[in-house]
């Protein structure tokens, strides 16, 4: 059943049937009975958490968070970012995270050391349109923290690069507000999805700690995300994940099959010059970000290459805890 639904949404049809795709934005503009039809519950975010806020993220009391009642453990926070915040994380994923010592998927036989060590710099300097497209299409993922071994499906204590402090701080903020106070961000995969790309059904079971939540952040174009059960025989639900959305897989959903059968180009994103409002309000938590980049992404000229990229692509950051509570390294 999972594969049939995946094939349905993957279809190359220009107008696939999207009637059953859950769009949490609809919940706020239609009648309350839509909550029951969608099996979606609006969550109340407490104001009692003593957390240090991060520039570019709205206060938790302004978040719209939803739980899927028929998929226990799935939570969607609908774009808790400001526009500058979304730009900042998009730029980090394109400019910084693919750099050495982080690992990228680019094949050493097809791409030289300069491209594999600093892909975005080389892409930005590329004047040949064919080579530009080849480099852009080839980049599919980068890993840092504990590096996931795609062949063995295991983590290795000797295979690590530093986990970015800004990303770790952001994930701990989301985790604390949602009640996962002991969450430790230790491994990340950034996926790059050009329109037309997919991610087939799978479970995330490589981590020794399979009870800690997984945080998934989306930037750029919209994805259809499938979440099923623990077997491929169970019918999955389809959800729109839009730019800025944060998806949390926890509890029973942590080991469920999930997939991305389709990327949908929905809109032109953020081309204007921003006001300085975010910067003026950024004193609290400014030590947690690259504030030079946070300021620069508001300039339309600096932002333009990043805007061009996400005009037909989606970026997804997956962050997870690897070690069991109390462990300081892999056994």
In short:
With 331 residues, this protein is α+β, with helices and mostly antiparallel strands. The protein is 27% helix and 21% strand. The chain has one domain (2-105, 140-320): Jelly Rolls, CATH 2.60.120.
Question: What report would you give on this structure?
Answer:
This protein is an alpha+beta fold and 331 residues long. It has one domain (2-105, 140-320): Sandwich (Jelly Rolls), CATH 2.60.120.590. Helices cover 27% and strands 21% of the residues. It is built from eleven helices and 14 strands. It has helices at 2-10, 24-27, 33-38, 83-96, 113-117, 119-125, 129-138, 165-177, 277-280, 291-296, 300-310; strands at 40-43, 65-68, 74-77, 103-104, 141-146, 160-161, 187-194, 199-202, 214-220, 222-227, 237-241, 246-249, 258-264, 313-320. The strands form two sheets. Strands 1, 2, 3, 4, 5, 6, 7, 9, 12 and 14 form a ten-stranded antiparallel beta sheet that branches. The longest helix is centred in the N-terminal third of the chain and has 14 residues, at 83-96.
Tell me the layout of helices and strands.
Layout: H1 2-10, H2 24-27, H3 33-38, E1 40-43, E2 65-68, E3 74-77, H4 83-96, E4 103-104, H5 113-117, H6 119-125, H7 129-138, E5 141-146, E6 160-161, H8 165-177, E7 187-194, E8 199-202, E9 214-220, E10 222-227, E11 237-241, E12 246-249, E13 258-264, H9 277-280, H10 291-296, H11 300-310, E14 313-320
Antiparallel strand pairs: 1-2, 2-3, 3-12, 4-5, 5-6, 5-7, 7-14, 8-13, 9-12, 9-14, 10-11, 10-13
């Amino acid at each position: 059943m999972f594969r049939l639904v995946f094939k349905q949404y993957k279809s190359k049809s220009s107008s696939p049937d999207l009637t059953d795709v859950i769009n949490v934005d609809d919940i706020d503009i239609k009648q309350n009975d839509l909550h029951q039809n969608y099996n979606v519950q609006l969550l109340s975010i407490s104001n009692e958490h003593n957390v240090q806020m991060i520039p570019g993220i709205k206060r938790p009391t302004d978040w719209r968070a939803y739980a899927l009642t028929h998929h226990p453990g799935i939570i969607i926070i609908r774009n808790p970012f400001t526009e500058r915040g979304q730009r900042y994380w998009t730029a980090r994923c394109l400019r910084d995270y693919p750099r050495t010592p982080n690992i990228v998927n680019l094949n050493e036989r097809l791409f030289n050391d300069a491209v594999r060590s600093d892909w975005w710099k080389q892409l930005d300097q590329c004047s040949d349109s064919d080579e530009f497209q080849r480099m852009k299409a080839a980049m599919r993922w980068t890993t840092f923290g504990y590096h996931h071994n795609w062949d063995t499906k295991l983590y290795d204590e000797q295979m690590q690069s530093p986990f970015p402090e800004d990303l770790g701080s952001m994930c701990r903020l989301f985790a604390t507000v949602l009640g996962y106070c002991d969450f430790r961000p230790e491994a990340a995969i950034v996926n790059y999805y050009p329109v037309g790309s997919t991610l087939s059904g799978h479970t995330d079971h490589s981590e020794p700690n399979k009870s800690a939540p997984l945080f998934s952040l989306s930037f750029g174009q919209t994805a259809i995300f499938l979440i099923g059960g623990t077997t491929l025989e169970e019918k999955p639900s389809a959800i729109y994940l839009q730019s800025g959305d944060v998806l949390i897989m926890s509890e029973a959903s942590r080991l469920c099959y999930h997939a991305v059968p389709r990327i949908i180009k929905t809109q032109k994103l953020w081309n204007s010059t921003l006001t300085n409002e975010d910067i003026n309000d950024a004193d609290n938590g400014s030590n947690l970000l690259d504030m030079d980049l946070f300021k620069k992404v508001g300039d339309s000229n600096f932002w333009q290459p990043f805007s061009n990229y996400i005009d037909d692509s989606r970026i997804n950051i997956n962050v997870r805890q690897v070690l069991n509570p109390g462990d300081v390294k892999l056994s």
